[in-house]
Amino acid sequence: MFHIIKRPLYLILGSVLFLVGLLGVVLPILPTTPFMILAAACFAKSSPRFHQALLNNRWIGDDLQRWEKQQTILRSTKKRATWMIVVMFSLSISILSGHPWLQSMLLGLAFVLLFFLWRVPESVINSLEKSH
Q1: How many CA atoms lie less than 13 Å away from 43 in the CB half-sphere?
Q2: Is 98 left (phi over 0), alpha (psi -120 to 50) or beta?
Q3: What Rg do the C-alpha atoms of the chain give, in angstroms?
Q4: The whole model's pTM is what?
Q5: Per-residue pLDDT at 1 exceeds 90
């Protein structure tokens, strides 16, 4: 019985994770890449077409393929993500001037995100190997 509803559940979960990942593009508290990785994993079990669409995406496809093969990310991706976190959280913290509790929470969340981001193993593939 469970195998009958497993595929639709993975499809729904993958769709929700994909939408949350899209929100992460504009909201600083939601990291995009982990949600896209989870969405790709769900689509791999439910929809080969959606899974392949994510892997072939020009913005996140290379990172998702690397994650599926090696469970690593490029240092340049980490640097870009770090800059995005710093810029977006700084903007959010400045908007919340006069609310020190919320500013402190955002600052703490930024540090947690950066801590976990920099714990992810880096790919040994450099940019020259990537282009070939």
Answers
A1: 21
A2: left
A3: 17
A4: 0.72
A5: no
